[in-house]
Amino acid sequence: MKRPSTSALPTPKVRKQAPVDDHKVKFSATAGAAKTASTASSEPKSILKKPLRSPTSTASNDSKPKMKMSSAALLKANTKAASKTHLLPKGRPQPVAIAATRGDVTGGMGRKRRTRREESDEEMNSGDDSDSDNDGEDEKDSGDEESDEDDFEGMPAARAKKTSKKHTEENMAEAMSKILGSSLRKADASTPILARSRGAERKIEEEKLEAKARKAISNEKKRLANRDRVKPDYTGMEYEKKLRKVATRGVVQLFNAIKAQQKATDDLTENTRPITTNAKDKVANLTKASFLDLLKSGTKVATTTSTPATEAEECLKNVAKYNKYANAFIDLVQPEHIRSQAAEATRRWASGTAKSAVDGAVMGYKMNFCTSELRTTCSSAMLENFKAPYTATAIKLLEDAGVIMGGKINMDEFGMGSHNVYSIDGPARNPFGITARTQEETADLDTRSAGGSSGGSAAAVASNMCFAALGSDTGGSVRLPASYCGVVGFKPSYGRISRWGLVAYASSLDTVGTLTKTVDDAQAIYQIMAKEDSKDSTCLTERQRKTIAQTIKPIDLTMFKDQDVKEKPLLGVRVGIPQEFNVAELAPATKDLWRRGIQVLKDAGAVVIPVSLPNTKLAVGAYFTLGTAEASSNLQRYDGIRYGHQSEKKDENDALYSHTRSEGFGKEVKRRILLGTYVLTSGSFDNFFLRAQKIRQMIRNDFDRVFSRQNAITGSCGDNLEDPENDITRVHALLTPVAVSTAPKLKDVIGDQIDPVDAFLDDIFTIPASLAGIPSMSVPFGTCTKDGFPMGLQVMSQYGDEDMVFKVARVIEEKGKVLCSKKQVE
Amino acid sequence: MMRPWLLLMRTQQSTGTHLLYTARIRVSTGVTAQYGVRRLATAQRPAHAPPPTRNLVKGRWEPIIGLEIHAQINSKTKLFSDGQTSFNAPTNTHVTLIDAAYPGTLPQLSKECVDLAVKTSLALDAHVYPVSSFDRKHYFYPDLPQGYQITQHYEPLAQNGKIALSPLDGLDYHLTVGIEQLQLEQDTGKSLHDVYPGLTLLDFNRAGTGLMEIVTKPDLRSSKEAGILVKKLQALLRAVGSSDGNMDEGSMRCDVNVSVHEVGKAYGERCELKNLNSIKSVVDAIDAEIARQIEAYESNTPVTQETRGFDVSTGTTFRIRSKESAPDYRYMPEPDLPRLVLDQEMIRALKDQLPELPDAQRERIMNQYDLGMIETRTLMGEEGMVEYFESVVSKGAQSKSVISWTIHELLGRLNARGIKFSPQVVKAPQLGSLISCVDRGVISAKVGKNILNLMIEGDVRDADAIVEEKGWRQMENHDELDKLCEDMMAQYQDKVKAVQKGNIGVLGFFVGQIMKQSRGRANPVVVNQILRTKMGLPEASPSAEATAGGHSSSEKKTKKKQ
Lengths: 826, 562
Fold this sequence. Notes:
The complex is a heterodimer.
Chain A: H1 31-39, H2 46-49, H3 71-84, H4 95-112, H5 116-126, H6 129-142, H7 156-164, H8 169-186, H9 201-226, H10 237-246, H11 250-265, H12 291-296, H13 308-326, E1 329-332, H14 335-350, E2 362-366, H15 393-400, E3 404-409, H16 455-462, E4 468-473, H17 479-485, E5 488-491, E6 511-516, H18 519-529, H19 542-551, H20 562-567, E7 574-578, H21 588-603, E8 607-611, H22 619-634, H23 656-664, H24 667-680, H25 685-706, E9 733-737, H26 746-749, H27 756-760, H28 767-772, E10 776-783, E11 790-797, H29 802-816
Parallel strand pairs in A: 2-3, 2-4, 7-8, 7-9
Antiparallel strand pairs in A: 1-3, 4-6, 5-6, 5-10, 9-11, 10-11
Helix pairs in contact in A: 1-10, 3-4, 3-11, 3-24, 7-8, 10-25, 11-22, 13-14, 16-17, 22-24, 22-25
Chain B: E1 7-10, H1 13-20, E2 61-72, H2 111-123, E3 127-128, E4 131-132, E5 135-138, E6 148-151, E7 158-165, E8 175-186, E9 190-193, E10 199-203, E11 210-216, H3 223-240, E12 252-262, E13 271-276, H4 279-298, E14 306-311, E15 316-322, E16 332-333, E17 340-341, H5 344-353, H6 358-369, H7 373-381, H8 385-394, H9 399-417, H10 428-440, H11 445-456, H12 463-470, H13 478-491, H14 493-500, H15 506-517, H16 524-535, H17 544-561
Parallel strand pairs in B: 13-14
Antiparallel strand pairs in B: 1-10, 2-11, 2-12, 3-7, 4-17, 5-6, 5-16, 7-8, 8-11, 9-10, 12-13, 14-15
C-alpha cells in the first residue's frame, strides 16, 4: 500500500465517473466521463455568458413560475428555514420547511432576475453573442487555446494575453497598466464581476471579427502541424472545456443570484466610512520590529536589550492593556508560567543553545487548535467546556522549537464567518491604531471588524499581544483578517502542515495558517511546522516534499548582470495580474494600491503580465457548496454524548439531537450545516456537489495554465506545454488584492439585518487559492487614504512553491510601509 | 488510550430500536442511480451464464435472492485507528480518540485491514482495483461517534468475484454465485438498551473495527442455496484468515434481499431482511419471506419495497420500515483520506501469500488421504482441523485411523463437553503418540479412549508416558490370558456350550468379561483367538471387530450431526 498517489493512475474502464476531489490525484477522465459531461450541457448558456443587470433594469417576470428554483433561492430558503425551525431532528434536511418557502422565494428572486425577453434583446444588441453560443462547439473541435478568447469578449485583458505572445515583455507590462486603468474608468456599478465595457462593444465587435478570421487561419495551421500527433488530452484544455459547459448550472446560478442579492443591498462600502483614526497611528504596527529580527542574531541576543523574557513581558503588558478592547485572547496561560518559560529560553539563548530562531517567542493559538492545556471551544457553545486530551501536531512542533503558548484566541464559530462576529465570546475588534492610544481612549474608537474567521489571531498580533499567532484558513480566514488588521497572513499549500488537532470545518480546504508581523516570521514559523505527519493522511510525506523541491527549479539568472541581480531581487521573476480579480466592487483605493504594488514589483525587476483565470467567477459558488457540504458532515459528530454540550431538555420524541444541536450551534453554523445538508441530499448531490467539484478542478487548471512551474503534485501545467518554465506568457507568482476594501465597521456586519449571502462575498479574492490548494499570503501594503485603515495585497504561487511567495511578498512588504498616495483615481 | 468509561444517555426505546437498523442498509441492486457509483450495470438477472430456472415454489413462483454479508476483519487494530480490536472486552476499554471521534482527529487507514480485504477479494476471484476511495455515509445514531460511517460507496475495493457451489458443498447441482463487490467500512459501537430501564448504554469498543461488506449478485433461488453460500463464505474467510466469520459472536452478519415473481413475468418488489445472526435464521427467514410474498401475490395484495426483520420465536418476518421512510445517507467523498492506491506488485505479493483455498484443499485431501465426503466436510468444518489432521498424519500414522481418532473420538468428545475445537486442547504430537500406541497394539482402543479423555482433561504428556504411569500396557502375555480365559470358561460353562452349539455371538460376552477383568489391558484380538482355540471353533478373520466395532456408536452420532 502506498501513501496518497503522487501520479495519476489510469482509471479502469468498468468504473463510471466518480467524484473527484483529491487534490493529490490527477483527474483523468474516462471516455465515459467526457460523454456524460457533454450530454449534460443542455442548460441555456445565457446565464453564464451574461452577467445579470441591476434590479432596476428588470421589468416583468412573466417566465418565472416555470423556472426551476435557483440554488441561491434555496440558499435563502434554507437560511430562512434555519431561523424558523429546529435543526436537523433526524439528520435529514427538512423537506417541509424548504417546500414551504420555495414558492415565495422563487417569486422574489424572479423579480430580481432578467426576463427571457430581455435576454434575447441583449443578444441582438451585442451581436456577438450568437457567435459565442456556437463557440462551445468550435472550442471542442479545435481544441485550440486561443478559442478561449471568446469567453472574455469585451475584456481587454484577454486581448492583451493574446497579443502578449508576440510582443516583448515590456510592451505587455505597458498593456497591463493600460488595462487596469481603462477598466477602472469603465467599471460600472451595475456590472457585477467582470469589468465589461458597454461603450467599447462596437469597436470590440469589429476587432472580434478580425480576431476570428485570424483565429481560423491559425487554427488551420495548427491543425495541419499537429495532424500527426493527435493525442487525447483529458487533463488539459479539451476536457476542461467540456467540463466548463457542464458545470455551469447550479453553482453558477447560485453565484449569480448571490451577486444579484448583493446588488440589491447596494453596499458599496467605501463612501460610507468616514476617516476616524489619527494618521500618525496608521503605520505604527507595520513598522514594529519583529521579535524574530531580534533573536535572529543567535547568541548575540544576550548582549542586546531584547530577550525572550523582555519580549514576553511586553506581550503580557499589551494583553493587559488591549485585550479587553480587542477581545482576542479568550483563555490565557498564567503569566507566571509564561515568564518562567521565557526566562528559560533567555538562558538558552545566552548559552547559545536556543532550540530554534523562535525559541522563547510567545504565540497565541486559534480556538480550533487542540491543546491539552486550555479549552478548545472553537468559539462555540457546543464545545464551551471542551478540553482536548491531546495537542495538535502543528503546536507540538512549535513547542518543540521552544515557542511559548500565550493563550487561545477568539474566532468565528468553527471558522465560519468573515468578521469574527459569530463567536460565543463576542466579536474580536480590529486593534489598528490602538497601540498609540491610552486605555481610556480605546472606548472612543469606532469599532471595526478584525476580519474572520481568524480575526482574534490577527488582532492579537496587530496589537503585539504575542509574537505571532496560528490561524486556520479555509476560504481566506487568515488572509482577510491579516489585511484588515495590517499583519502578514500566510496560508501554505494544502498538505504542507498537518491538520491533526485542527478542528475540521471543511477538510479538503482547511489549512493551518500563520499571522505574523513580518514575512520572515511567517517563513520561520512555517518551516518549523511544515513536516510530515503520519496522523494526517492528507499531509505531504517527506518523499513528496523532496519531489516538490526537485520539481521547482531555481530561476535562471545567467542572462542578468551581477550588479542588477543584487539590486533587483525579483529579476527573472514574472508576476501575473489576474484580470478577473478586477471586479466592480473593488474600492478605488484598493485598485490604486494594487496598481502601486505592480509598480513596486516592476521596480524590483519583475516582469508583470496580465493573465486570465477565467473560472474565478465560479469560485465563490463552488466554495460555499463544497465548504458547507463538508462542514455539515464534519459537524455531525457533535451530539453531546461523548463530549461537549448536551441539552437538559427532555421530551417525548427522542429529541436528544435536535435540542443539543440547536442549543449548541450558532446562527451561522446552523445556516451552513443546513445548506450543506441540502447540497448532499441524494436529489441535489449531482447538481451541486459534483458540479462544484468540477469547478474546483477547472479553477485548479486555470492556475496550472498561468504558472510557469508545473503543479508538483499532479504534474500538470494545464496544457501540453513542453517547457512552461521558459514560456514568457507564464508567471511565477500572482498579485491581487486581498479584500475589496478596508475593514468594515462592526455595526455593518453584525445583527439580523445583515444578509448572509453578502457576507459570502468577503472572501472572493481569497477563495480561488483555497480551492486550488496553492500557497497564498496577505502582505500589508499601505493604508487607505479615506479611513486610514490598512490594506494588504495577496501573493500566490504554484502548489508547493512557498519560497516564491516569500520572495515576492518580501518586496511588497518592504515598500509597503508607505502610505497610499493621496491621489484618488475617481 | 482513553480512560474506560460507561456512557449514559437518554433515548426512547421505541424509536431507538427503529434507528438501530439504519446502521447497515444499502440498496444493493438496480434502483440507485447514484452518480458515478462504481456499480456494474445490474439487472436482476446476472450477466454471466444465467442458471436455469430452478427451485420453483408451488411450481410457478421463482424466488430471487441476494445477500449482503458484513464480516469483521480479523486484524489487530481498527480500520482507521491504532485502537485494538476486541471481543467481549470490558466496555469502553478499547477506544481511542479517533474511535470516539474527538474534534480534530483524522482517520489513518490500517494496512493490515487493507491487506486482508485484498486477500479476501482475491480469494473470491474478484478484480481488485488499483485505485479505490472512501466515502462518508451519514446518519445520526448514538453508537456512531462520527455521525457518519466511512465506507466505499463510489469506488469499492474490488468487484466481480464469484463463489462456486457444488454437490460437495451439499447442493444437488453446480452453481456459480457472482460477487458484486467487496468494500471496506467501519463498524459501529454497541447500544445496550434498557440495561437500566429508560437508559441506553453505549460501548464503543467495536466502533471503528474494520468490516468487509460482501455483496452477492441476485443469483440465489432458494434458502438452501443461501445457507450453503454463507457457510462456504465462512470457510473461505477463515481459510484466508481475514475474519472469524462467527455469526453468533457478530463477527459476521447477514442481510438478505428477497423478491418473488411468477416465472415468465416481471420481477417482484424486493424486501430486505436485516439482522439475521445465524445460518439457520438466514434460511428460515428466507423461507418465511418467500411464503409471505407468495401469499400476498396470491391474495392480490401488493408487495412493496421495504426493510423487514425476522422473529425467530414465531418464524415470521415483520416490517421495520418502508422505502419511503428510508434515510438519505448523503454520501460524500471522504476528504480526510486520499485515494487508496494499490500497485500491482503488492496485489501479486498478497496473492502469493494466500493459503490453500477450501475448494482446492478439499479436493486435495479427499484424493491424498482417500477420505469420504462426510469426513472431509467434518474435517474442514472446524477451523485449523485440517492442519491438525495433516500434522498427525505426517508423523507416520495411518490416515484412516487418524481421521477416526480426530473427527470421531476427539471432536465427538469435545462437542459433548461443549468445547470448541482447537489444536491446543490435545496437541497433534499427543494424539499422534496415542494413535501410534493403539496401532502398535501397545494398548487397546478402549484404553486409548481413556487416555484421550485424560488428555482432554488437561494431561499434556504423550500417550506412552501415561500408559507407563498407569500400567495400562496391553497384556500380550499368552499365559496370563490363557489363564483368564480358562477361568472364565469354567465360570460360565453353559455359555461355552451355547457357543459351541453355534451361537458365535456369545463369544463377545466372554471377550467383554475378560476385558473387564483385565481392566481393558487385554488385547481383544488375542483373547478372541485364544477363546476360539479353546472352544474348538475355526479361526476367524479378526481385526474388524476390534476397531470398527468400538467406533460404531460415535460414528452414528457424527453422521447424525452432519
